Structures are given as structure tokens and as C-alpha cells.
Amino acid sequence: MDDECRCPFERCKFKGDEVTVSLHVGRHLDGALQEGDGEGSTVAEEASERDGFGGLEDMYDFDGEPNMIPCHHPDCGAMILAAEVQTHEDAHLALQLSLDEAQFAEANEAKHFNALKKRELGHFMDRDEKQGGPPPKVLKAMEQVGRGGRQLLIAGSNLGWVTDNMTVGILTALKNVFNVPVMEKYKLWLADPSGCMHIGGENDDRGFGCGFRNAQMLLSYLAHTRPTDYVNAFGQKDLLSISEIQQKIERGWEMGIDWLGREQLQGKILGTRKWVGTTEVYTLFTQAGIKVEIVDFPRGETARQSVYEYVSSYFGTSTPQQKRVNVTNKGPLYFQHKGHSRTVVGYVESPERGLLVFDPGKKPTQFLRQIRNPNFNPKNNVGRKRDTDWEMVVKPYLIRLENEMRSDEWQLLRIEEGTGMMDARERDERKTIKFTRFADQ
After folding, report:
1. pTM above the 0.70 mark?
2. Right CATH number for 134-437 from 3.40.50.300, 3.30.300.30, 3.90.70.130, 3.30.465.10?
3. Per the record, what is one GO cellular component (predicted)?
4. 401 FRET partner, CA 20 to 30 A, in 93, 137, 298, 434?
């Protein structure tokens, strides 16, 4: 070899070029060799003493040049030291396993999304117009996961298409129940019955859909009471589906609305089972130009009292005449607490204070559907026994303040009153969410 060197340790006679001797000395310093080891050895001889792992021969050839091998993995081709082949291969394997897991997760999301799409489009999903599909004017919307389920055209509704998980007139039914003589102990206020419908969850959105269904209840109120604003805001007359709500939220993020929420959900919600809360519903309405407000309540023992005071003020101030059952012109409120959300449609003052809510997880009973007629006469009792338990009829809709409002963290979202859309300047000012704090009274 040219420029041959030898190990500086006195009893070691290892020889080689400068690079290999440096590596050899390093092994002395690490304790891998004793001072007398390697006496009279060559590069190849020392390498053979290292069992199974490949020695210096794996790093350097007999001329002292690095022993490099090209990676055989597709799309790689990197030149790597022979001794590091296994480590390099392990890295490729780990990467492939990670990609496989990601693809598996993506396939599962796609499978669920297709199931959700099929549920929303119902029997129209795989049928064209000649096979009895939807009329041409809604085909385009349906291609984007639009309408769904069985289609029921509700007379007097501003929504062109209403799915079978939507129940119109439940507030009228509750009003009828509270007007029954045996319920005269109750004094309450109700939201505008003409603009509120109950929208329940379905099998495909179980576990994540409550936020979307409550958002739909607010959307349905807007569509009924401000139809022009609704169409201008969302570009359609029909109620937004879950997938369309997801699309609008992502659009809001792209516009710069609620950047923090976008980061928390990794900027992706369309086609997933991710939950939404008040901030995502805020993004949904704000990107469309509809003014909404989030009210945040102090945590702790006084939280539920604060919620009740806000709700009672919101509904109570709209009715100068205080009857036993008061019907207001107020819209519903999106009601968020830990792990769940509901829609507030009124409140009860006595005999116990509480909130009246629509819960997407609780489907209206057939009996309640039967008494939605404004001319309902409790004496007829719809063919039921005269000892109807009216308390049980309203129980799914009543949250009692003292016994059933156990969370200490609450938020409400309301659509601000009035008509008209926000201009670009107003929308820019609302990109960062500003919570209204409800101070203790």
C-alpha cells in the first residue's frame, strides 16, 4: 500500500493506510482492543476476528477505499457503506410499514365516507334520471354529496327537500303538551315553532354527528326565516348535508377563519369522522357571510346558573305578555358542553328551572308526531289511554338545571338577528374568533 502507517500503540503492529489505522486506533480508545491485540495483523485478518457483523472489509476494500454498495430498493439507488446495508434496509421497511398503515387508514375513511354518501343519497346514489333518480336541477348538488334518504316535500317549508330524519312541528307538539291541564304547573318560553325542526342522527354518523346535526337545525331555521340570505350564503335552497358542511368549514379555513381550529384538526375534515363544536359552526356561518356569536361561560359551580340566566334573558325579553306557555320569535341556540352538543329551543321557569332542547340522539316519538296539529285537543288523546304520562312525553326535551346540568364548561352559539350578509371587511374582522364572556350577575 502507498503511504503505509502503523498503529501508535507500542505493542500493536497493525499496519495500513492513514484512514484504516485511524479507525483501528479508535477501537483501542473505545476498549474494543487491548494494547497487544492486532500484533502483526493485516486489515483483512482483523476484520475476520469480528464475527458475523462484517468488519473493516465491509467498510473499506484492501486498497483502503470505502466499500460502497448501491441500494437495490426501487426509487432509491443511494450508495451506502456495506456495513450499513441492514440499517438502510430497515429504514426502508419502516417507511413502507408506515405508508401501508396510512393507506389502510385512508381506505377505512374512504369506506366510511362512501357509506355516509350512500346514506345521504339513499336509493338515488347509483341511479340516473332514467332509472328514477332525482330531477336534473338537483343532480349537480347530489354529485357533491347533496340531498339524501327518502325525500319528503314538506308543505309550507322553504326547504325544497327534507330527509326522513327531519321532523317538522315538534315545538308545536310540545306546546300542545304543556297546554294540557295536568301540565299547568309549568311556565315556559319556546323558540319560534315555524322555523325550528328536529334533526336526528343516523347510523352512519353515530359517534360524531351531533355537532353537524345541531348545525343543521340552525341552518334550517335560517333557511325558513331568512330564505334569501340562506340562498345567497350557501348557494342552494336545500339544507346542507354533513359532507357539504365539512366542505364549507374547510373553505372557511382556507379563507383564514379560525386558524387555530384548523391546526387542531390538521386542516382536514371532509370525509372524516372528526367532531365539530362551536368554533367549527362559527367558521361554517362566517365563511358564508352570516353573523353569529359565541357566548362563553365561566367555569365552576356557577356555570349552569349563568347559562340559564343567558337563555332566559334571550327568550324572555321577546315576549311582553307573560303567559304560562309563551311562544317567541327567537331562533334556536347551538349548545355545546364536554362530549356532546344539543340545540336549545326554550326554557322552563317553573316548577323547576331548566332548558328545553332538541337532542339529535333522541328521535321524536310517534305519539309526539301525531299531536303536531295546532288544533290539537287533549280530550281526544289520539286514541291513547286517558292516563297518558305527559311528564314522560316531555322528559327527552327537558334538562333540569339542578339535577341534569352537571358539566362545568358550556358554550352557546346564536345567529345574530337582522337580515343581510357581511361584506368582505366585516368577514375579515371576524376571522379570529372573539368570544363573548358572560359575566356573573
Report:
1. no
2. 3.90.70.130
3. nucleus
4. 434
